[in-house]
Design brief:
This protein is mainly α and 153 residues long. It is 71% helix and 4% strand. The chain has 6 helices and 2 strands, in the order αααααββα. Strand 1 (128-130) and strand 2 form a beta hairpin. Helix 2 (41-66) crosses helix 4 and helix 4 (81-95) crosses helix 5. It is globular.
Length: 153
């Protein structure tokens, strides 16, 4: 059975979604700080990554208010974790001291940071096995957790 793509939410709902996403990002970030201060860095990192995704969701909603996309494009961006993380990683790159050498290198770096943040989010929650080695949540470091917490502010 083919999957039916829902229409774009009405403008009023897009605005409410954006506001709710911002509020939820703040709650997730507060919880991430609490966990980091208690020394639970893997879970703190995961919640900070989720806060970044909520910020990306807010951006998706506001962008749809100004430039309404096709429904499929909206819902793909609204539901894909890496699409939402890309927005926050882009903001990080624009605010960082890292030189912007070219648009292609900038995009490559943003996508690499997005991929890494998503992988590390999962690493902070799940045990895995790759390349002949255990992959454990405790492998997510304090530095990684605080970096993402600061990024999400």
């Amino acid at each position: 059975m083919p999957h039916t793509i829902p229409p774009l939410p009405p403008c009023e709902d897009l605005l409410k979604l954006a506001q709710a996403a911002i509020a939820n990002a703040g709650d997730l970030l507060a919880d991430a700080r609490t966990l980091a201060e208690a020394g639970s860095f893997p879970r703190a990192h995961a919640l900070a990554a989720l806060a970044c995704e909520e910020l990306g969701k807010e951006h998706q909603c506001l962008r749809a208010l100004w430039l309404p996309p096709a429904p499929k494009a909206f819902w793909d961006g609204f539901t894909r974790h890496t699409d939402k993380l890309t927005h926050t990683q882009t903001q990080f790159m624009l605010r960082s001291d890292e030189p912007l050498q070219s648009p292609d290198l900038f995009n490559t770096r943003v996508h690499e940071l997005t991929r890494l943040a998503h992988q590390r989010k999962l690493r902070g929650l799940y045990v895995d096995y790759a390349d002949g080695a255990l992959q454990l949540p405790r492998h997510v470091t304090e530095q990684e957790a605080w970096r993402l917490i600061h990024l999400a502010q």
